[in-house]
Design goal:
GO molecular function: DNA-binding transcription factor activity; sequence-specific DNA binding
Organism: Winogradskyella pacifica
Low-confidence stretches: none
Number of helices: 12
Largest sheet: 8 strands, antiparallel
Shape: globular
Keywords: DNA-binding, Transcription, Transcription regulation
CATH superfamily of the largest domain: Jelly Rolls
InterPro entries: Homeodomain-like_sf, HTH_AraC, PchR_regulatory_protein, Tscrpt_reg_AraC-type_HTH
Radius of gyration: 22 Å
Distance between the termini: 57 Å
Order of helices and strands: EHEEEEEEEEEEEHHEHHHHHHHHH
CATH architecture of the largest domain: Sandwich
CATH topology of the largest domain: Jelly Rolls
Number of strands: 13
Pfam families: HTH_18
Strand content: 15-25%
Mean pLDDT: 89
Length: 340
C-alpha cells in the first residue's frame, strides 16, 4: 500500500501532486487540465476543471496498479467534496477515525473536514474507477449572488456557512442510479473550447443538485423501494442503459421480464423509482429525445427518423412529439433551418 501525501492550497495542487507521485503527464486546453498516465503505477486519466465562484471538478477514469491512499491535509484549502462513484469502489475516513467507510458503485459521499483535519481516500488495486468529485470552496461560493443556502435543510446549511472550517461532516448516500446518467453525460460532451466548459459546468450543477436532493430525502427518512433489491435496481439500470443505447430495438415488458429474470411488477417499480416513468413511458421518452437530436444533427427526413428510432406510425410519432415539445416535427425542423 502506497500513501500519497497532499498538502493542497487549491484543487489543482491535488492533480499536480498526484501526477508528480505517479509520474503522470498534465496537459492544459481551454482551462481543462488532463493528467494522463500509463505506467507501473496506473493507467487512465484524471481531469480537473475550475469554474467560477469556487466550484471545480475532479473526474477520475483510471485503474491503479497498486493500492493507493490519498492523505489530503486540510489546512487553508478545505472544500466540501461531493463524490459519486460511477464504477468500482473506494473508501474514506477522517484522520480521527480508525474505520473506513466503503462507497460502492452508484453510491455517493459528501464530506468536509476541520482546518487541521486529514482526509484519507483509499483506492483499490486493479479496479477500474470512474469517480466524479465536485469541490466547493465555501468562502468563494458564498459570494455568488444567486447562492441561497437558506433554502437547504438545516444540516447542509450549517456545512455551507461554516466558511472557517470549524466542523467536520460526512454523509454517505444510498444507491442513486439517476445521478449515473448525468455523470456519464459529461463524458459524452464532444464540444471544444469555451462551449465544452460551459456544458460541463451546467452538468456539474445538475449533479450537485442531485446530491443535495438525495441528502434531503435521506434525512427525511425516505428509503429505497422495498419491492426491489439493490441488486435488482442495478439490473434495471442495465436495461435502461440498453434502451438509451439502442432505442430502435423493439422492447416489450414480457420479453424484458423473461430476459432479465425480473417480474413485470419489479421492472415497473424500478423504472418508476429511477426515472419516475413506467417502462413504456421511458422508452417513448428516449425515442423522442433521440428524434429531436437527429433532427438537429442529421439531414434525415421525418419518415426516416420515425423508423430509425423504432416507431412504426408517423402520425402517432407526430402526435406524441407535439405533446412533448409543443411543436410538430415539421415545425421543429423548420425552426432549426431558420436558425441556421
Amino acid at each position: 500500500m502506497i500513501e500519497i501525501v497532499i498538502n493542497p492550497t487549491n484543487t489543482r495542487d491535488i492533480l499536480t501532486q498526484i501526477s508528480e507521485d505517479l509520474n503522470g503527464q498534465i496537459e492544459e486546453r481551454w482551462g481543462e487540465y488532463t493528467m494522463t498516465i500509463d505506467n507501473a503505477n496506473a493507467k487512465g486519466q484524471i481531469i480537473y476543471i475550475p469554474f467560477d465562484w469556487g466550484v471545480n471538478l475532479l473526474d477520475f477514469n483510471i485503474t491503479f496498479h497498486k493500492e493507493f491512499i490519498l492523505r489530503i491535509e486540510g489546512e487553508e484549502f478545505n472544500p466540501i467534496r461531493f463524490m459519486y462513484n460511477l464504477q468500482g469502489y473506494f473508501s474514506h475516513r477522517f484522520g480521527v477515525q480508525n474505520k473506513e467507510h466503503k462507497t460502492e458503485q452508484f453510491q455517493s459521499v459528501i464530506f468536509t473536514n476541520k482546518s487541521e483535519g486529514v482526509n484519507y481516500i483509499h483506492f483499490p488495486k486493479n479496479e477500474k474507477l470512474q469517480i466524479n468529485i465536485i469541490q466547493i470552496v465555501r468562502k468563494e461560493f458564498m459570494k455568488k449572488r444567486t447562492t441561497n443556502v437558506s433554502s437547504l435543510n438545516k444540516k447542509l446549511y450549517e456545512v455551507f456557512v461554516d466558511t472557517d472550517h470549524e466542523n467536520r461532516f460526512s454523509h454517505f448516500g444510498e444507491l442513486n442510479l439517476k445521478m449515473a446518467d448525468d455523470v456519464k453525460s459529461i463524458h459524452k460532451i464532444k464540444s471544444k473550447g469555451m462551449l465544452r466548459i460551459l456544458k460541463i459546468e451546467a452538468k456539474v450543477y445538475e449533479i450537485l443538485s442531485l446530491h443535495i436532493q438525495q441528502h434531503d430525502r435521506q434525512i427525511k427518512g425516505k428509503k429505497l423501494p422495498t419491492s426491489v433489491s439493490k441488486k435488482e435496481l442495478k439490473t434495471i439500470k442495465k436495461i435502461c442503459d440498453l434502451i438509451q443505447k439502442e432505442p430502435a430495438k423493439q422492447y416489450s415488458l414480457d420479453q424484458l421480464s423473461i430476459d432479465y429474470g425480473l417480474s413485470q411488477a419489479k421492472l415497473q417499480d424500478g423504472f418508476k423509482f429511477i426515472y419516475k416513468r413506467t417502462v413504456t413511458e421511458f422508452i417513448r421518452h428516449i425515442r423522442l429525445e433521440q428524434s429531436r437530436n437527429l433532427m438537429k444533427t442529421t439531414d434525415l427526413n421525418i419518415s426516416q427518423i420515425v423508423y430509425s428510432i423504432g416507431f412504426t406510425s408517423r402520425s402517432y410519432f407526430s402526435k406524441i412529439f407535439k405533446e412533448k415539445f409543443g411543436l410538430s416535427p415539421n415545425e421543429f425542423k423548420k425552426q432549426i433551418v431558420a436558425k441556421v
